[in-house]
Amino acid sequence: xxxxxxxxxxxxxxxxxxxxxxxxxxxxxxxxxxxxxxxxxxxxxxxxxxxxxxxxxxxxxxxxxxxxxxxxxxxxxxxxxxxxxxxxxxxxxxxxxxxxxxxxxxxxxxxxxxxxxxxxxxxxxxxxxxxxxxxxxxxxxxxxxxxxxxxxxxxxxxxxxxxxxxxxxxxxxxxxxxxxxxxxxxxxxxxxxxxxxxxxxxxxxxxxxxxxxxxxxxxxxxxxxxxxxxxxxxxxxxxxxxxxxxxxxxxxxxxxxxxxxxxxxxxxxxxxxxxxxxxxxxxxxxxxxxxxxxxxxxxxxxxxxxxxxxxxxxxxxxxxxxxxx
Length: 325
Prior knowledge:
By secondary structure, the protein is mainly α. The protein has a domain of 213 residues. The longest helix is centred in the middle third of the chain and has 27 residues. 39% of the residues are buried. The mean pLDDT is 86.
């Protein structure tokens, strides 16, 4: 067993043992970190190749609301509603992504299109207030402990679900990172025209990672909604959520599998710290600090926290190797 495998095995043991030692409040935070870490990892699947989307709040909102609405109004189990929400998010990603990639809408223009998508979805949820509850929010019907309804008052169940979800996100990240399409995506990120000239299906590859990212984000939104048992368009969709996703993934490090999870740890800690420190006296504190920190990280730490740590260890290793030689 290599050192890396031993490290992951040790981490798995610690994570499995945590429910027996962690108080309920910290278990609640840990579940949120795992779910948001999964969502941020889903975004980084696109972002690490230069496909900067500011509209993932749209996919998360669709994924959260579809199973909840189907459960309340049709009695349809979330086990069916969640895949339907993912499918609708994939369709939404296809409707927006294909024309953009076909017409070569890239860079900040693509970011603006996706930003508009996020806001359109949020405003649609607010406008359909008779069905969704609008800005007042929406609460799925509670039935207590039920696998059929995917509702569990005991946090240990959602901890297991969120842990499996998080591990799935890491597995997909590694699958794309080690897959045969990795070189094609890197080439597209460098120069689309040059990539197309050597036979790479630029539109197909970009759509592939976009739709995978959209589906995973919708899945994360659905599990988040099932856990919180309360949906609000401001917290699961819209520009604020989209910017939070981008901020956390970039700050943690989009080029490392664990980077977005580090970003989730930072954002959840920041939100809770501000809530405890200011209460309702400084409502926009989190978004304001997100913006300031995002600018600082892009300027001084473009590879994020994990990237900075990796670079530091590489420099020290090279220094030791040079001194030994």
